[in-house]
Specification:
By secondary structure, this protein is of the alpha/beta class. It contains 9 helices and 9 strands. Strand 2, helix 2 and strand 3 form a beta-alpha-beta unit. The longest helix has 23 residues. The protein is globular. The mean pLDDT is 86.
């Protein structure tokens, strides 16, 4: 059986994630009490009828009284050889505040004496243990519903058995660092095409910029050393049964150097047969 637990902060996109899994044929249950996880799987297994089946459950702060039982439930699944993959969704406080102001929904941890920002803070604390066990963390601050659905589909269908998926993300430091990255590498030390006026409207995917950066020996060395570092340590992550390894590559604006280097690394590891995903977070920003 393939089991996925969807969790995360309220307003971060859990409903979109669960609906995406349902569209893929997963049997989905929203807001399942953690204490009932083992019982659900015991009932669900006979339904498989000898075929590979898929189930997804959403567990979050709405059943906060049951969260304490989740570690024991997960340990039991591992003991019986039926571990669950966990995907955890998050976003910045500012983004969550904006989303709640637009939808006018009530946060599950707010009441007459608890304002929204305090409710978000309490929720982060409650879900911290689950976040630490997550196989995949997705920050939806700058992610559209379409992009989130695509990421969930890739996570659900990816070849995760013993080979962690490398997720590369380019970004601009001026727009903030991604908080869902396991590694963040700063490439602002490299020559910046931005300072040539004719290059400013272009990106690291344009042939002129690619040619400019390919001719720079420092850029080539950076790509080689980053690839070597990841190649060296990937077996350690495999030994820990990690499903995802998120790598952020940042330059100043996230449009030239980081985009080029991410594309180079994606090509390198994909050619080696590694499961690879990538995203250029700030590519479409104009400044």
């Amino acid at each position: 059986m393939d089991i996925i637990i969807v969790s995360g902060l309220s307003g971060s996109g859990k409903s979109v994630a669960l609906h995406s899994l349902e569209d893929l044929g997963y049997y989905c249950i929203d807001n399942l009490p953690a204490a009932l996880l083992s019982q659900f799987l015991n009932q669900f297994e006979p339904m498989a009828n000898g075929h590979a089946e898929h189930a997804a459950v959403s567990i979050d702060s709405r059943n906060r009284q049951f969260l304490k039982s989740l570690p024991n439930a997960l340990a039991h699944l591992r003991k019986i050889g039926q571990p669950a993959r966990i995907v955890f969704l998050e976003a910045t406080d500012e983004t969550l505040l904006q989303r709640y102001s637009e939808t006018r929904r009530k946060h599950p941890l707010t009441d007459a004496t608890t304002p929204l920002l305090d409710g978000i803070a309490v929720e982060r604390t409650l879900l911290a243990p689950l976040e630490q066990q997550a196989d995949c963390r997705i920050n939806t601050t700058h992610t559209t519903p379409h992009e989130l659905r695509s990421t969930i589909r890739e996570f659900a269908g990816g070849n995760l058995a013993g080979r962690p998926t490398l997720f590369f993300q380019s970004f601009g430091f001026k727009h903030g660092t991604p908080i869902d990255a396991d590694y963040i590498f700063d490439v602002r030390c490299l020559t910046n095409p931005h300072w040539q006026p004719e290059f400013r409207p272009l990106t690291g995917e344009d042939p002129v910029i690619i040619d400019f950066l390919q001719k720079n020996e420092d850029v080539a060395e950076m790509v080689q050393q980053l690839g070597g570092f990841l190649t060296h340590w990937l077996p350690m992550f495999e030994a820990e049964n990690r499903s995802y390894l998120a790598v952020g590559i940042g330059c100043t604006g996230g449009r030239h150097r980081s985009v080029y280097i991410v594309n180079r690394l994606v090509t390198t590891f994909r050619d080696r047969g590694r499961p690879v995903q990538w995203r250029h977070r700030d590519l479409q920003r104009l400044s």
